[in-house]
# Entry
Amino acid sequence: MKKNYNQFKEFIKQSKKILILTHKGPDVDAFCSSLLLKQILLELYPKKKVVFRAKQNPSLKLPGMKEIEIVKELKSEGFDLIILTDAGDLSLCIEDTDNVEDSIPQIIIDHHDTFFEKKKNTVLVNENMSSATEQVYMLFRILYKNEFKLNEDSSTLVQYGIVADTGRFLYDITTPNTHRVFADAKSIVDVDLEDFAYRNSKFPREATHAIIKYLESLKIEKDMAYMFVDRKDLEEDLELKQGASEAQAFLRDRYLRFIQGVHWGFIIKPDMNTKDSWFVSFRSTKGYQDVRVIAEELGGGGHTYASGVLIKADSIEALLTKILNIIEKHLKA
# Structure
């Protein structure tokens, strides 16, 4: 990994205009790692142009979020380096309608278990840490040593990113190093974790209609549950469409595995930016189903108990058939 660290530094030195991207439907860690990366790069290399682009804002207030360039279409024109955070491949960050050139040199800063085929002019930094935020922190701490210093904003981002992806240190991806990094950041600014958890657990009241729609589709098979909304329902109901993403996230993280007798499952949301594309999120309880292997066979990936995939299917029925067939195959194995 030391070689990759040095390659990272060389790529940065050789670039003049850097574009930061993260995965579609970014979560707190995706935003925090990207904002942290942008802030540190500008402090170390003030003459470089560093831009973080996304298609949506964070759902909670984060330091530096006003500097995110919110766009309808991601473009790489004019940039000589692309850095991906919290994603192992460019395909996880862009839609068919985006215009991002894959031939531009790339740096990938990730922490997921799934590794994609390495491309030319690409540097991968992934030591399977608790979060992309922890990986960004460790990269600069080791590579730049005393040149790298945290301030209140970057310390806040470190704490938010780690807490969000570790479930407040409850998940087994938490390591002693995770606690050390968090303590380093907390020594500079003491983030109120209770307040963060409270704000991060909220969902807009506009999502209520979509939550009800999802619950109407709930299916339970043995210890697995799944939910979905159909594309045509979102196309015909603006209120449903506006609340679908928040409803999906809420039910995925705070409902699906908490049904009595249910230990794992998945939830589906149509990708309204790309025809016949669907987001499928898998979640499992520790000690039960490995959902990463299922997601990988479907073309995605992630962690053992939290994975996802973007799948092409011309109908919800065809999509469910594809997913359930793969699940049946793994349950019989």
